[in-house]
Target: Cytoskeletal protein RodZ
Amino acid sequence: MSQITVTEDQKSRSAQRLRRPTWRDPRLILGVLIVVLSVAGVLGLLTAQDRTVPVYAADRPLSTGDHLQPEDLRTVHVYIPEAAERYVSAEDDLPEGLQLTRMVGQGEMLPAAALTEVTSNGLQAVTVQAEHDLARAVQPGRLVDVWAAAGAALSGEAPDAAQLVTAAEVTDVRESSSTFAAEDSVTVELLVASEELSELLTAQGEGAVISVLPSAAQGDAP
Model:
């Protein structure tokens, strides 16, 4: 019967294969590195995909003139990076004293432009797109009159014009950023008496040309 001879070199290689790996083993380090990179990649992918923002949506049909309450709304998460500012963010609590200027259907996201704020003295904040050059001359704190011109000119006649608001206080004036606004228009934010608000909103909804002019009333708003 033949006898198998094992050399010292073979014994050494066999011992190395059976030796328990240590933290200095390159194979162990490489394996841990692969796991860490895989986890980091998955987390990075999930973070990049989660770019939704919370906005308020109507939990029931809401009518023009409704005073908004938290129970009227629910929070939805949407991905609208280019239009998020057009809707009311749900990241903060709903401000008090908000009133709707148009109907909002159930499930519809709440547009910022559909809200007006009722002040302690009964005035309501509203924005108008004014296309008269004099609108750029008014400043916050001044009083202005608001006129609306409706209907196309016929046979050289000027369109009908009517004064809708008298001595409204200006709270803000800024260049119009809406893509639907005329290039030469400005956005003017006003405090309007509740009895004048309905007619003003109706004129805007019908596409009337709104002009904001310095008021004939003397003095600044209190």
